[in-house]
Amino acid sequence: MLEVHIPSVGPEKGHMVSTVEVLCRGRRHVVQRRYSEFHALHKRIKKLYKVPDFPSKRLPNWRTRGLEQRRQGLEAYIQGILYLNQDVPKELLEFLSLRHWPTDPKAGNWGSQLYHRPVVSFPMDPYICIPSPEPLPNVVVHGVLQGLYGFNASTAEAQPEAARHPAPTPPTP
């Protein structure tokens, strides 16, 4: 998945530069772009793709509040391009300096890719579970229980019911 944010705008070499942060497949990539570069991107893609309105260069208050409005506008513009188009425009990928993006439609399908590791879960409380009549014990469950809780399932199953629960002691007079 591709996420784009503009965390800051600030002066660099006499120009105002936007820091563009790209999160792509678990990796963070940062590029710096001027307003004129955003506008050039807009001119290139507006006839080819669905794009939101481009934010105005003229700001009512150039200082802090105006820069924040521009930052928010440019971030909303880039995110709007991603939202409105099923495929990421190649011009946007070039603008973000992303060279290794899948061109295969199946590889770009978000539903076909997993972005997490497999998860082991217990559908029920393991202490309440009735022992299964399977001929072999579930070594994975026993190992996890032993590792997490110091619970040794093999000794608990081997003990008879009476040995698990000590007999009550009679009250002393």
UniProtKB/TrEMBL annotation:
Q: Which GO terms describe its cellular component?
A: cytoplasmic vesicle membrane
Report the residue ranges that make up the PX domain in this protein: 1-103
One Pfam short name: PX
Gene3D superfamilies recorded:
Phox-like domain
Keyword Transport: yes or no? Answer: yes
Q: Which UniProt keywords apply?
A: Cytoplasmic vesicle, Lipid-binding, Membrane, Protein transport, Transport
InterPro entries per the record? Answer: PX_dom (IPR001683), PX_dom_sf (IPR036871), Sorting_nexin_PX-domain (IPR052467)
Keyword check for Membrane: yes
Give an example GO molecular function: phosphatidylinositol phosphate binding
Q: How does it sit in the membrane?
A: Peripheral membrane protein
From which domain of life does this come? Eukaryota
Q: Which GO terms describe its biological process?
A: protein transport
Give the subcellular location.
Answer: Cytoplasmic vesicle membrane
Sequence similarity: Belongs to the sorting nexin family.
Its name, as the record gives it, is: Sorting nexin 22
Q: Which organism is it from?
A: Capra hircus (Goat)
From the broadest rank down, the organism's phylogenetic lineage runs: Eukaryota, Metazoa, Chordata, Craniata, Vertebrata
